[in-house]
Design a protein that fits this description.
Blueprint lengths: L4 E7 L3 H12 L4 E4 L14 E2 L1 H7 L5 E5 L1 E5 L5 E5 L6 E4 L1 H14 L3 E3 L2 E8 L4 E7 L2 E12 L6 H5 L7 E11 L7 E7 L3 E11 L2 E8 L1 H4 L4 H10 L11 E12 L6 E2 L2 E3 L15 H21 L4 H9 L2 H19 L3 H11 L2 H12 L4 H11 L4 H13 L3 E8 L2 E9 L29 H13 L4 H46 L4 H12 L5 H8 L3 H13 L5
C-alpha cells in the first residue's frame, strides 16, 4: 500500500536509485521508488560492466555473465597491447536486468515501496518538504516527502525541473549484442581510430554466450555521422573486419553518457545521483560504481538532514562538499583522457601504443611515477619480475626519453663517478599501489553468542521473551529492541568512520614525514609496514614487500641512523 507521505521519494529504479533506496531504508527512513517503465532493468542502455568494488557491495555474483580479467588494446595501425592477470578480476560483465532487479530487491527487503509504470508530473519545494504529483498508470496522485532524489538518468526529469544545470559532457554511445565474435575468454577488446570512434574507442565485451560491440564519442566529433554509422566502418571495412565476419546481431542499444558532475547536485530539498548528476567516468563511460560511491560518501550527512528535516543552506553546502573528491578525480581523469586519447591524432596514438606495448617500458614508467631512479637500481627491481638486462633498460629509457615520457640528468655520487638519474616527465594513467594496503571490511555471519556484551545478550533474552506473547505484544517489544539495535549500529558506524578518517590522516602524515626526510620508495613502504605491523619480523617484511632480507636489514639500518625508527 502506497502512503501519502515519505521521508524520501526516489525517481528512477535503476542500480543507483535502488542502491540509494536500500541504504536509506537501512537507516530507518521511509522510501518510495518510482520507475517509469513496467519492469526493472529495461530498457538496457549500457555496456553492462560492474567494477569489483560495486559488485562487492551488492554481492550479485549470480548475475555475472563473464569475469573480465584483462584486455587487448589496439592502436589505429594495429599495434596490440595485452594486459591483465587471470588471477585478478578487473571488472564483471553482468546481465543488467538481473543485476538491477537484485539491487532494487535489496531496497524492497529493507522496507522501501516501489511504483512501476509511474512518473513525476510536477513537484514543488515547501518549507517543510516537497509536494509531488505522480502519474501512476494514468492516475494522478499527490504525495509529500522530506526530500526528492533523482536517479533518473542522463535526461533527468528532476534535474531539468529544478534547473540544476547540465553535465559538462554528454557523449553518445551505440552498442549491439552479437553471437559469433572470436574473442578471448576473460579479455575485452578495445579499438582506437578516428574512422569509427573519433577521439575515443570502440569495444568488444564478452557477455556469456554473446559479445557486446559498441563505440562512443562526443557529438562535435561525429560530424554528420552517427555512432551506428561508424560502428559499421569498424565491422565492415576496418583492418579488423574479419573478426566480425561471423557476427549475428541479437540486440541493439543506444544511449547518452553524461560525464561531468554538475555544480550543485543538491539544492534545497532536491538531490540528483549517478547519471543524473553527471557522474559517468570520462575514460570508460562507467557510471554504476561512481553512483554507488556518491551514495556512500553522502549517506551519513544525508540521513542526518532527512531525519532532522534540516535543509538549511549550510546543511546543503555540507552535503555537496562530501563529494568534492569525485569532482576532482573526474576532472583529472578527463584531462588525462584528453591528452592521451581525445586530443590525439591517429599518428600520436600509434606512437603511444608503440611506447607502451612493451611491458618493460610500462613497468619502468610505473617505477618512475613513484620516485626518481638510476638504471642499476631499476635493474635490481625489474630483474626480480622479468628477464631483462641493464643494457636493455638503458635502451628503453632512451626511447622513452626521446618521446618525452622521461627526462634525465647527471648527479654527483658518493660512491664514485657521476650517475644518470631518470624521472617521469609526463603523467600517465597507470595504477600504482603506494603505502599501506587497502583496508577491507568483512561481514561476520557466524558468531559465538558468548562473545556478546551483557547489553546485547538482553536482546536475545527479549527475543525469547517475545515468543510467549501475543502478536501485538510481540511486535511492540521487537520494534523497541530493533530501534535500540539500529541506534547502536549507527553509533558504531559513526565511530568506525571517525577512526578510518583518523587512520587516513595518520597515513598521509607518515607519508609526508617520510618524503620530507627524503625517504625513497622502499623506505616509505617499509615504514608503513612497520607502523601497521608492530610484531613484524625481517622475514615477514621481506616477504610482504617483495625484498630480500638483507635489503630489509639495510633499509632498517638507514632508517634507524636517521632517527625514523628504533
Amino acid at each position: 500500500m502506497i502512503r501519502d507521505n515519505y521521508d524520501v521519494i526516489v525517481i528512477g529504479a535503476g542500480p543507483v536509485g535502488g542502491y540509494l533506496a536500500w541504504k536509506l531504508t537501512e537507516k530507518g527512513l521511509s522510501v518510495l521508488l518510482v520507475e517509469e517503465h513496467a519492469e526493472i532493468g529495461r530498457p538496457f542502455q549500457c555496456a553492462g560492466m560492474v567494477n569489483p568494488s560495486a559488485m562487492d557491495k551488492i554481492g550479485a555474483f549470480d548475475t555475472v555473465l563473464t569475469r573480465i580479467w584483462g584486455a587487448r588494446m589496439y592502436s589505429p595501425s594495429g599495434t596490440e597491447i595485452v594486459i591483465g592477470d587471470p588471477d585478478t578480476t578487473r571488472t564483471w560483465s553482468v546481465c543488467r536486468k538481473l543485476f538491477d532487479e537484485r539491487v532494487v530487491q535489496l531496497s524492497l527487503d529493507s522496507g522501501a515501496d516501489l511504483l512501476l509504470s509511474s512518473k513525476p508530473v510536477s513537484a514543488t519545494v515547501t518549507s517543510s518538504g516537497v509536494d509531488i504529483s505522480l502519474d501512476i498508470n494514468g492516475e494522478i496522485k499527490q504525495l509529500q516527502c522530506r526530500m526528492l532524489c533523482g536517479a533518473d538518468g542522463a535526461h533527468s526529469w528532476v534535474r531539468r525541473t529544478f534547473k540544476m544545470g547540465r553535465p559538462k559532457e554528454l557523449l553518445i554511445g551505440f552498442q549491439i549484442e552479437v553471437t559469433g565474435y572470436p574473442g578471448e575468454e576473460g579479455r575485452l577488446d578495445l579499438f582506437t581510430g578516428d574512422d569509427f570512434a573519433p577521439g575515443f574507442f570502440a569495444w568488444a565485451i564478452p557477455s556469456g554466450d554473446t559479445t557486446r560491440i559498441g563505440n562512443w564519442s562526443l557529438p562535435n566529433k561525429l560530424g554528420e555521422e552517427s555512432c551506428e554509422d561508424l560502428l559499421k566502418v569498424l565491422m565492415k571495412s576496418s583492418q579488423w573486419k574479419e573478426r566480425f565476419s561471423n557476427c549475428k546481431e541479437v540486440g541493439r542499444y543506444c544511449g547518452p553518457v553524461p560525464s561531468g558532475l554538475i555544480h550543485k547536485p543538491v539544492i534545497d530539498r532536491v538531490g540528483v545521483f549517478g547519471d543524473a548528476a553527471g557522474l559517468c567516468k570520462p575514460t570508460t563511460g562507467g557510471g554504476i560504481g561512481k553512483g554507488f560511491e556518491q551514495v556512500d560518501l553522502m549517506l551519513p550527512k544525508l540521513v542526518e538532514a532527512i531525519a532532522t528535516n534540516d535543509f538549511t543552506k549550510s546543511t546543503v553546502k555540507n552535503l555537496n562538499d562530501t563529494i568534492s573528491s569525485l569532482r576532482r578525480n573526474q576532472n583529472k581523469s578527463r584531462a588525462l583522457r584528453n591528452v592521451f586519447l581525445t586530443e590525439s591524432t591517429d599518428e600520436e596514438l600509434d606512437e603511444l601504443f608503440y611506447l607502451l606495448e612493451n611491458p618493460t617500458r610500462r613497468r619502468i614508467l610505473q617505477l618512475l611515477s613513484v620516485e626518481r631512479l638510476y638504471p642499476l637500481k631499476m635493474h635490481k627491481q625489474l630483474s626480480r619480475e622479468m628477464d631483462v638486462t641493464q643494457q636493455a633498460i638503458v635502451k628503453h629509457l632512451k626511447i622513452l626519453e626521446e618521446h618525452g615520457f622521461v627526462k634525465s640528468k647527471d648527479e654527483p655520487s658518493n660512491r664514485g663517478p657521476r650517475r644518470r638519474v631518470y624521472t617521469s616527465s609526463r603523467e600517465v594513467s597507470l595504477h600504482i599501489d603506494v603505502g599501506p594496503s587497502t583496508y577491507k571490511q568483512k561481514a561476520e555471519t557466524n558468531f559465538d553468542v558468548s562473545n556478546l556484551s551483557p547489553q546485547h545478550k538482553r536482546v536475545l533474552d527479549a527475543i525469547e521473551e517475545s515468543r510467549q506473547m501475543d502478536s501485538k505484544g510481540r511486535i511492540d517489544l521487537l520494534s523497541r529492541v530493533s530501534e535500540d539495535l539500529r541506534t547502536s549500529i549507527s553509533e558504531v558506524e559513526d565511530e568506525r568512520r571517525s577512526l578510518m578518517t583518523l587512520l587516513g590522516e595518520l597515513n598521509r602524515q607518515i607519508t609526508s614525514t617520510a618524503q620530507n626526510a627524503n625517504c625513497n620508495y622502499h623506505e616509505r613502504i617499509l615504514l608503513h609496514h612497520i607502523l601497521h605491523n608492530k610484531d613484524y619480523t625481517i622475514e615477514s617484511a621481506a616477504s610482504s614487500l617483495g625484498l630480500r632480507e638483507a635489503e630489509v636489514r639495510n633499509i632498517l639500518e638507514n632508517l634507524q641512523a636517521r632517527g625514523l625508527t628504533r
